[in-house]
Amino acid sequence: MTTPGVDDAVREKRPVTDRRLHPVTPLRRAWAPVAVLIGWAVHDPDQAQRQLTRLTTTTILVALAVLVPAAALYGFLTWWFTHFAVTDSELRIRTGLVFRRTAHIRLERIQAIDITQPLLARVAGVSKLKLDVIGTDKKDELAFLGADEARALRAELLARAAGFAPETAHEVGEAPSQELLRVPPGVLAVSLVLTGATWGTLAAAVVVPTILWLVTESAWSVLATAVPLIGAAGASSVGRFVAEYDWTVGESPDGLRLDHGLLDRAHETVPPGRVQTVRIVEPLLWRRRGWVRVELDVAGSSNSVLLPVAPREIAASVVARVLPGATVPARAALSRPPRRAGRCVPLWWRGYGLAVTDAVFAARTGLLRRSLALVPHAKVQSVRLAQGPWERLWGVADVHLDTGANKTVTARLRDAQEAAELLRAQAERSRTGRRDARPDRWMA
Amino acid sequence: METGSPQNTGTTGDERAADEPGWTGLPPGLLRMRRLLLVVWLGLLTVGLGLLLGLLVGPGWAAFALLPAALIVWGWVMLGRNWRSWRYAERADDLLISRGVLWREETVVPYGRMQLVEVTSGPVERHFGLASVQLHTAAAATDATIPGLDPAEAERLRDRLTELGEARSAGL
Questions:
Q1: Is the pLDDT score of A259 beyond 50?
Q2: Residue A406: which of B102, B141, B144 has the nearest Cβ?
Q3: To probe the interface with A, which of B102, B106, B136, B145 has the most A CB atoms within 10 Å?
Q4: Cβ neighbours of A252 (radius 10 Å)
Q5: ipTM, 2 decimals?
Q6: Most exposed of A12, A110, A216, A252 (fewest Cβ within 10 Å)?
């Protein structure tokens, strides 16, 4: 899979070879001045028109003659001064024209690697590569690389992170991927139709502007509310369909592969042992069909969906592969809080449930939209027991588990005695669970 | 208003920690500092309010100054209860912190999960010879702070935690 050019360059000048991004990169911000102008014109149309009529052809030409080369030069210089290099243990990114910035990203700390291709980048045959490490941000992505180069680089980074010898790392190539599941577009469409949020935003987009029109009869206020509401409705229905179209989950020795997108394609790789929490969400209207949505938390990564929609059994088998040794506890295996918990949270207390297996801590919340969160014992950073005065009166307490992805999973309203034992036992399990966990360098 | 020994935490009404290794309470310095601050600020408020109302409105109205005075008494008791509720235990593999009177919270942090140990001490705390130790893990929700320690004890705890953290170090 590696491109010969890249390969040779790496071999010739070890240990560190500086590389540059793809030459189309300077164009990525070319639209920015245009967008600023359009934004200004939309924001203040009268003023914009008045200013435009005052301009003569010569002024426009002079302005263009200054602006275009300046923008081109800036784009070129930023590209020229951005380098990246892969060393034995780090990815180094040097960037910045005036303010220099050097990021050294440790490879054994990677939590995920994302390759994304926005629509225009697909046309140009380039893609972005982002290494998710805790603390990295948007600035640390490599945009853009040639599509083949990005795949080769991902394979090399994963091979090095996995612990292959540095000399062979760039020859290992891409690990073979085995497809676990592909979500059919029809199922995805039906699942979105059956989602409350889709209808909620659509209803809001219809009702709110209508009421406003009846009350104020001012076209501007209607437009000002309708546009964002319709935008939100579109994002939650069409937008989600486009983003989650052709969702494919694959498994490879390098970890989990998630590929999705209709217009913008995204390819995410989560190496083994990086998943901090898995949540199985079951909206009310999906229950009859037995569908669930599976979300995951990876530290430092913005990816949050593992499966947009899948039958429960298949989802459980995928979860079992993501969290080795874990099984999704059956509904009957979850223990409810004691009856008196109803005094603290009427009715909804029935939605709470808890199960602890050898591998995971599973806590369920929600009565209508059920959500079951699974935390592997080895991923727990700290355990907290909290009890308010009203809860103490009824002898119940909450147990919070904090994970490295900055999420907290809570087992609510357990019997106080049970909660205290849970706190001790969970701390013990989390400590010992770590011993069985796989090393950061998963091939070493 | 006795300032009970740290081990005697009868007010929390909870004795299930009987099998636990030694809990350590906070040194009395923190309570002294908090009470002093309370008395100084609310005392000033009482006197100021009393004088202001007495001179401008009438001596009868000055009785309102008793409000902050009552607050001093209430706060005095509350600070005592809160101070007594704080305790921590260094176990073989994790640190336990327990606190709170009405809203109780107990935190367990395995040493291997610590990313950073911080010792902080503000100007007022320094004057009273106090320092607080804060533990950070990869989860921001982990709120493990031990306030009002003796600086020497804070440093000992920091060094010990760092040492234990290194020995049991684990990533994410």
A1: yes
A2: B141
A3: B106
A4: 16
A5: 0.81
A6: A12
